[in-house]
Design brief:
Layout lengths: L1 E5 L10 E7 L9 H10 L9 E5 L8 E8 L6 H17 L4 E5 L7 H15 L18 E5 L3 H22 L7 H15 L2 E5 L1 H7 L2 H7 L7 E7 L11 E5 L1 E5 L19 H16 L5 E10 L10 E4 L5 E4 L6 H14 L4 E6 L3 H7 L4 E5 L2 H13 L4 E3 L17 E2 L7 H13 L4 E5 L5 E2 L9 E2 L4 H9 L2
Parallel strand pairs: 1-6, 2-4, 2-5, 5-6, 9-11, 9-14, 10-11, 13-17, 14-18, 15-16
Antiparallel strand pairs: 3-4, 7-8, 8-11, 12-13, 15-18, 19-20
Helix pairs in contact: 2-3, 3-4, 4-8, 5-8, 7-9, 8-13, 9-12, 11-13
The structure holds ligand BES, manganese (II) ion (MN) and zinc ion (ZN).
Amino acid sequence: MDVKLETRAVPQVETDALVIIGFEGAPPDGPAAVQIKEFYDSGEFSGKALEIAVLHHPSGLSAKRLVLAGGGKRDSFNASELRKLSGAVLRSLKTKGIHAITLALDEPFRSDDFAAAAVEGALLADLENDRYKTDPKKNEKHVDSFAVLGGSQAGVDRGRVLAEAQNFSRDIANEPANLLTPTILADHAKKMASEYGLECEVLDQDRMRQLGMGALLGVAQGSAEPPALIVLRYKPATAPSTKDHLGLIGKGVTFDTGGISIKPSDGMEKMRYDMAGGAAVIGAMRAIAQLKPSIPVTALVPTVENMPGSKAQRPGDIVKSLSGKTIEVLNTDAEGRLILIDALTYAQRLGCTHLVDAATLTGAIVVALGNVNIGAFTNNEAFLAKFLAASKAEGEKTWQMPMDEEYKELLKSNFADLHNIGGRAGGSITAAWFIRDFVDETPWIHLDIAGTAWLDDAKPYMAKGATGVGLRTFVRLAETW
Ligand code: BES
Ligand code: MN
Ligand code: ZN
């Protein structure tokens, strides 16, 4: 689908569907005002968020149809609401066989942030997770072009870069685990890096053994698929004005059976999205390579398959992490934290001064926050404040979780420096504390995206499957550094 800026005035726009936003209790003025008012008066359209009404042969317009799109309450309308609305419009009109759409923005919603959000909404909504359906008719209904009236070309371009990166990330996370092994994930990263001019290095098992990444390798040893540590580097072209260096670390478990502490079979198929954090940081690097922020950014993705093979690690095994600390592995299903800590230590060695990790880490975060908010943990409130401002601007809801010292007590081990689980209570917090123990004083944010990285059911604005959550916030964080 083509996205572009429309520069003609509303009445002159020739398109299959001209979309205008109608708010609750406020029929929009302008062309076709009488027909629009009839929609409101009859109750067929009220302006409720994501509501859609289609009007043929609108008076005073060159467009074939006028589409009224519900913006909800005008006072609370913002770029995040527009992103969803634009997506809902696209998915609804696509099923009707409409090929060309123009979305007209009105003041005060004509800034580049709104134009970018409109484009993002449309492109994100257009991605289907049906690559393996062989029905030849499945692509018959598709939208060829989506134009935005309002904002500038720069807004449209930024929206396209972000949404294409997010869709790239979602495509990877949607892949089943037989078709996305750690090696294949590394291949995707290498290919992307060479297309967009990033440095990419992949550490193999031998190199990780030399370095002493015992925590990561312990998880990997139960699988026939070799692990990898993917490193992607972005360096600004001109010498940065800051000594800061952002590290983005994403959990890349291509499948999580739980290992010897095996998971129940019911629902286990979902554990193919256990690399969504890794896919999000790889996708963020694709956008960063194009938007060129002024801070260096390095992404690290430790990638393994957590399997109960005959060489698998056992509960009670003690491993030595890259940091030198020893860990008693009480539960092999708490594997995400084990691979992350070795990657975080390595990120510190590569010079990263600020660390953000994203991981589908715990079922407990789903219990705490459902599928709405990312759970955020930090050892540095100022850093998190910066992150939360970026996440708010990008519409990626994030909620800070507590990190009181008391939770840390639960990780004390009988036989090693610490063990890898803290019990059922506060499970997402003890998981965060485990990681925090390895980053020491380096400013760090941990994002538990287990509840937000996957949709079991489609939303009006997004297909079921991977969401690509986190990516846009990572990019904005780098851009606004
Ligand atoms: N990948 C899972 C967490 C997860 C759960 C992701 C649900 C997405 C949806 C993680 O590796 C895991 O198994 N966590 C355990 C930790 C426990 C053993 C301490 C969990 O949450 O049950
Ligand atoms: Mn697990
Ligand atoms: Zn996992």
